[in-house]
Automatic annotation (TrEMBL), chain A:
A GO cellular component annotation in the UniProt record: mitochondrial matrix
Protein's UniProt name: Pyruvate dehydrogenase E1 component subunit beta
Gene Ontology molecular function, alphabetical: metal ion binding; pyruvate dehydrogenase (acetyl-transferring) activity
Assembly and binders: Tetramer of 2 alpha and 2 beta subunits.
GO biological-process terms attached to the record: pyruvate decarboxylation to acetyl-CoA
Job description of the protein: The pyruvate dehydrogenase complex catalyzes the overall conversion of pyruvate to acetyl-CoA and CO(2). It contains multiple copies of three enzymatic components: pyruvate dehydrogenase (E1), dihydrolipoamide acetyltransferase (E2) and lipoamide dehydrogenase (E3).
Top enzyme class: oxidoreductase
Species of the source: Trapa incisa
TrEMBL record, chain B:
Taxonomic placement: Eukaryota, Viridiplantae, Streptophyta, Embryophyta, Tracheophyta
Function: The pyruvate dehydrogenase complex catalyzes the overall conversion of pyruvate to acetyl-CoA and CO(2). It contains multiple copies of three enzymatic components: pyruvate dehydrogenase (E1), dihydrolipoamide acetyltransferase (E2) and lipoamide dehydrogenase (E3).
PANTHER family, sorted: PYRUVATE DEHYDROGENASE E1 COMPONENT SUBUNIT ALPHA (PTHR11516:SF60), PYRUVATE DEHYDROGENASE E1 COMPONENT, ALPHA SUBUNIT BACTERIAL AND ORGANELLAR (PTHR11516)
Molecular-function GO terms, alphabetical: pyruvate dehydrogenase (acetyl-transferring) activity
The protein's name in its UniProt record: Pyruvate dehydrogenase E1 component subunit alpha
Subunit structure: Tetramer of 2 alpha and 2 beta subunits.
Length: 351, 398
């Protein structure tokens, strides 16, 4: 049950608007209520109500045996979480940001991701690792990295990247119910954003499938893929492109591993042009995989070279102007889409 | 009337026994009943326990003829298996890593005697004998080592990745030290589930310096988890002697606020006593550290001759003075529980059993090529998966 949402009625159907924070909180609450094996652990998740208030109210409701404040020892508590998952519990391990997951990355990869395979199915690991990922605002190089590409490279992991409140609810519930290790990459700057949701989304049984992308906006001229915060920028870019006569199809990936290659390729076969957008480092990034997949599967359908928009190939600087140029902006996406459409300048009124 | 009997010719003479009259009568009964004789016997451990922040158990260990004979049989089986694995490795039937446990058998066997299969054990990569102790079979061991279908991990794990979840054995881990937080996690889950069982997380003197050990121990003590950390101190972390790796090699004291016990790891009865004590402690008062003073005859792995960083005299000295199987053999003989011939016959039978298991394992086929793509996930959603040439080999994850 959601504690705060505004109700609006559109076209006779019941819709509310909730923030991503509320969506995540309600998803955690409902899954913990439904399954006593689910528990939450991480720094400040309990008494502090969550570093970003995602776990607000959960300690009060479920008690200190199920909402556990840990010391600042990622390697230790992540290993403990994975061990609990080996035994059959369903831990949700929060990293205050995914930058700190690097302290625990051996447990994520070697203890969690590979165990089902090495044990030929004896030891499955139903664990969720969640927390904010990617750039925030002005937090500098050590606190701004996007880990989607690194984790999505590993067989045995599933990697999810919600954008909207619907994504946040549906994907987190799916992640907690999933029997495999799931990396759940949130975004700090999205926590406070509000999105309209239907009654279906608000229902406690709501769940989204893992491995399926969502077409946020249909189009016919160019396919733009994005995930997490970049979906918002891609949608803004689509509006600008529409005014210039370019109809962009925006794909919200939702799932980086498994990657929904079918949806992406079907879209490119329709539009014949591709722009991938991500916040993380460009080399060996998510976009690199998508571009290659499209070239391999749909080469004959491409009318233009594939385009990648990514974070700058540098550690994140602090100064506001440098930070801005280190992260993709709407104009970058627009420019790349136009390049793919061979329209480097705005279309003049036709003669 | 209690009889005090001392054997005439054994190094473990410091055994003080109290045999009750029933056992004296039992000794007169034909020997083949000994393996089921549960008459209590009390044996003193070879050396006293060293303690840290706790009182420690008594040196007098309760055992039975049945248990002592089973110790002998189980350790002899483990020893024979490891020696056979050495030969198989040299014959190139076992590939990659092979870390052998011969010399350390008393730890595996003594521990099993103190606990149930509902208690959990997790260890590192020197796991063949631990797996056997948990109820794994020789066939599963040899098949896994040779990468065959009949292996405990169906050939997909290898030497370092043996598991037996249905009897509380959680592996089999290749990353030094990782098994310690994992073990504390198992203990967490046991407490969460109100199981009244404990977890033994085993690690070596090399792993004892890992930061994650202290992180996990801190949490385990804060949260009162039924976790027992067992340092199998064989005095060498690969090629590095303990005094070169640890500023303080008193591993049982390194838990600081956590109590600890140092145990003669070559004495299966001492190991049993310590593990029994630790289990009771962990269920009531939280984590405890056990340091097992043990020794490995082989090098770190089959790639290590094991003689460049220690002397052959040292190795043969331990074999002579402290071998765990010889200790039990002498005890069994001195208690007149079996004759030398009977024990030798037992060993012959074990040898045959091991040879048969190897022969059967050799017949087991390698996994189907399709097994490359199984068990990546518990639930794969039908996603595509690729081989080296994705246009040539691709499959769908079930």
């Amino acid at each position: 049950m959601l504690s705060v949402f505004r109700r609006k009625v559109f076209h006779g159907s019941f819709i509310a608007a909730i923030t991503v924070r509320e969506a995540l909180n309600s998803a955690l609450d409902e899954e913990m209520s439904a399954d006593p094996k689910v528990f939450l652990m991480g720094e400040e998740v309990g008494e502090y109500q969550g570093a970003y208030k995602i776990s607000k109210g959960l300690l009060e409701k479920y008690g200190p045996e199920r909402v556990l404040d840990t010391p600042i020892t990622e390697a230790g508590f992540t290993g403990i979480g994975v061990g609990a998952a080996y035994y059959g519990l369903r831990p949700v391990v929060e990293f205050m940001t995914f930058n700190f997951s690097m302290q625990a990355i051996d447990h994520i990869i070697n203890s969690a991701a590979k165990s089902n395979y090495m044990s030929a199915g004896q030891i499955s690991v139903p664990i969720v690792f969640r927390g904010p990922n990617g750039a925030a605002a002005g937090v500098g190089a050590q606190h701004s990295q996007c880990y989607a590409a690194w984790y999505a490279a590993c067989p045995g992991l599933k990697v999810l990247t919600p954008y909207s409140s619907e994504d946040a609810r549906g994907l987190l519930k799916a992640a907690i119910r999933d029997p495999d290790p799931v990396i759940f990459l949130e975004n700090e700057l999205l926590y406070g954003e509000s999105f309209p949701v239907s009654a279906e989304v608000l229902d406690s049984s709501f769940c989204l499938p893992i491995g399926k992308a969502k077409i946020e906006k249909e189009g016919k001229d160019v396919t733009i893929t994005a995930f997490s915060k970049m979906v918002g920028l891609a949608l803004k870019a689509a509006e600008i492109l529409a005014k210039e006569g370019i109809s962009a199809e925006i794909i919200n990936l939702r799932s980086i591993r498994p990657l929904d290659r079918d949806t992406i390729n079907a879209s490119v076969r329709k539009t014949n042009r591709l722009v991938t957008v991500e916040e993380g480092f460009p080399q060996h990034g998510v976009g690199a995989e998508i571009c290659t997949s499209v070239i391999e599967e749909s080469f004959g359908y491409l009318d233009a070279p594939v385009e990648r928009i990514a974070g700058a190939d540098v550690p994140m600087p602090y100064a506001a102007n440098l930070e801005r140029s280190a992260v993709p902006q709407v104009e970058d996406i627009v420019r790349a889409a136009k390049r793919a459409c061979y329209r480097a300048v705005p279309m003049a009124a036709t003669a | 009337m209690a009889l005090s009997r001392l054997s005439s010719s054994s190094a473990s003479r410091c055994v003080d026994l109290l045999i009750n009259p029933l056992a004296a009568a039992a000794a007169a009964i034909p020997r083949r009943l000994i393996s089921s004789d549960t008459t209590p016997i009390t044996v003193e451990t070879s050396v006293p326990f060293s303690v840290h922040n706790c009182d420690g158990p008594s040196r007098s260990v309760e055992t039975t003829p049945k248990e002592l004979v089973s110790f002998f049989k189980d350790m002899a089986t483990m020893r024979r298996m490891e020696i056979a694995a050495d030969s198989l490795y040299k014959a190139k039937l076992i590939r990659g890593f092979c870390h052998l446990y011969d010399g350390q058998e008393a730890v595996a066997v003594g521990m099993e005697a103190a606990i149930t299969k509902k208690d959990c054990i997790i260890t590192a990569y020197r796991d063949h004998c631990t797996f056997l102790g948990r109820g794994g079979t020789l066939l599963e061991c040899f098949s896994e080592l040779m990468g065959r279908k009949a292996g405990c991990s169906k050939g997909k794990g290898g030497s370092m990745h043996f598991y037996k979840k249905d009897s509380g054995f959680y592996g089999g881990h290749g990353i030094v030290g990782a098994q310690i937080p994992l073990g504390c996690g198992l203990a967490f889950a046991q407490k969460y589930s109100k199981d009244e069982n404990v977890t033994f997380a085993l690690y070596g003197d090399g792993a004892a310096n890992q930061g994650q050990l202290f992180e996990a121990l801190n949490i385990a003590c804060l949260w009162d988890l039924p976790a027992i950390l067992v340092c199998e101190n064989n005095h060498y972390g690969m090629g590095t002697a303990e005094w070169r790796a640890a500023k303080s090699p008193a591993y049982y004291k390194r838990g600081d606020y956590a109590p600890g016990l140092k145990v003669d790891g070559m004495d299966a009865l001492a190991v049993k006593q310590a593990c029994k004590f630790a289990k009771e402690h962990a269920l009531k008062n939280g984590p405890i550290i056990l340091e097992m003073d043990t020794y490995r005859y082989h090098g770190h792995s089959m790639s290590d001759p094991g003689s460049t960083y220690r002397t052959r005299d040292e190795i043969s000295g331990v074999r002579q003075e402290r071998d765990p199987i010889e200790r039990i053999r002498k005890l069994v003989l001195s208690l007149d529980l079996a004759t030398e011939k009977e024990l030798k016959d037992m060993e012959k039978e074990i040898r045959k059993e091991v040879d048969d298991a190897i022969a059967k394992a050799k017949e087991s086929p390698m996994p189907d090529p399709s097994e490359l793509f199984t068990n990546v996930y518990a639930k794969g959603f039908g996603t595509e998966v690729y081989g080296a040439d994705r246009k040539e080999v691709r499959s769908v994850l079930p």
